[in-house]
Design goal:
There is one protein chain. With 200 residues, this protein is mainly alpha-helical. The protein has one domain: Tetracycline Repressor, domain 2. The chain has eleven helices and no strands. Helix 8 crosses helix 9. The longest helix has 26 residues.
């Protein structure tokens, strides 16, 4: 593994554990047992490092979600697995990470959304298309519009100002916003599958 990949993976772990602002290049270098100069030879500054971390997270999570889709009997089963994965992810993440992203790195967040490269959300189009092909989602929906709306729904569900984690369980918010929206675009077959999985 080269230095770039090692730095990205260690920075990702530290950002998730302590938040972005709390992690300095000195802390990262000390944790890795390398010099700060080595990090700056690879990344110009902390923003460039953060972009590298988020891009790596996106690629890894896209691989995981693709595997879930491939191994699931239908798209509803896959969605429930994805929601549980998102829940586990947010449970293990320091809330400071999301707050730091929103407060101090809006330009990076905006760029990722525009490029559809935000972790977890880049598989949405494929999910909707597969749902239509399986007869689970209605054929009369516009995939592009639904995809954009679902991305916005996910953004709302993780908004700490709207749904502070002290007052709301993230899993409940995601399920109530995301899964109830899915009901609106589902056929009877899809509704039956959603009901069946919710009972589990």
């Amino acid at each position: 593994m080269d230095y770039r990949q090692r730095i990205i993976e260690e920075a990702a772990s530290m950002f998730r554990t302590y938040g972005i602002r709390a992690v300095t290049m000195d802390m990262l270098a000390s944790q890795m047992g390398i010099s700060k100069r080595t990090i700056y030879e690879v990344f110009r500054d902390k923003d460039e490092l953060l972009q590298g971390v988020l891009k790596w997270m996106t690629i890894r999570q896209r691989e995981v979600l693709t595997k879930i889709l491939d191994e699931s009997e239908n798209v509803i089963e896959a969605i429930f697995k994805m929601v549980d994965l998102m829940w586990d992810h947010f449970q293990s993440m320091n809330p400071a990470f999301q707050m730091d992203m929103k407060r101090f790195h809006q330009d990076i967040v905006k760029k990722l959304w525009e490029m559809n490269e935000q972790p977890y959300y880049s598989n949405n189009y494929e999910v909707i298309k597969r749902g239509i092909d399986e007869g689970i989602f209605r054929k009369d929906i516009d995939i592009e519009i639904i995809n954009r709306f679902m991305l916005e729904a996910v953004k709302i569900s993780i908004d700490q100002q709207l749904f502070p984690s002290d007052n709301y369980m993230r899993k409940d918010v995601i399920r109530n916003i995301y899964l109830n929206y899915l009901r609106g675009i589902s056929t009877q077959k899809g509704l039956n599958l959603i009901n069946s999985h919710e009972k589990k």
